[in-house]
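Consider this today:
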Amino acid sequence: MKSVVVDLNAQYIKFTKALFPNALDLIVKNHPQFEKVYDAYKDVFNELKEKNMERLIDVLENYRRSGQNMDTAISTLKKNMTTVLNSVEYDFPNGPVEGINRRIKSLKRSCFGFRNLDNFRKHIALIRS
C-alpha cells in the first residue's frame, strides 16, 4: 500500500482528492489533541456549509476545551452566536462592505489624517456616493 501525506491546508486536500480519489483520509492517531481540534473544525465547517443551525449550536455548546487555539475560536463563535446564526440563515456577501473599508483605509493613508473627525466623515460620505 502506498500513502500520501499532506498537512490540512484545504488546497492540498482538494488537490490530493483529485489526484488520488481512492485515498483514505486519516489523522495521525498519536496526536489526540490535534484530532479533537480537527474534528471540531470539521463539525463547525460542515454545519455552516449545510446551514444546519441546530447542529451548529449543538457542536458549539458541547465543545470541550483542549488548551489549543480552537478554544478561542469556539469561544468567539459562542459569544457571537446570534451573528453566526444570522450568517447561516441569510446569504449576504461581505464584499461590498470590505470594498468600502478598503477605500476608507486608503483615504486615511493618502491624507495623513484630518484636522477633525467631521472632515473625515464628510470625505467618507463622498466615497460612498
About this structure: The chain has a mean pLDDT of 84. Helices lie at 10-19, 32-50, 53-61, 69-79, 81-89, 95-111, 117-128.
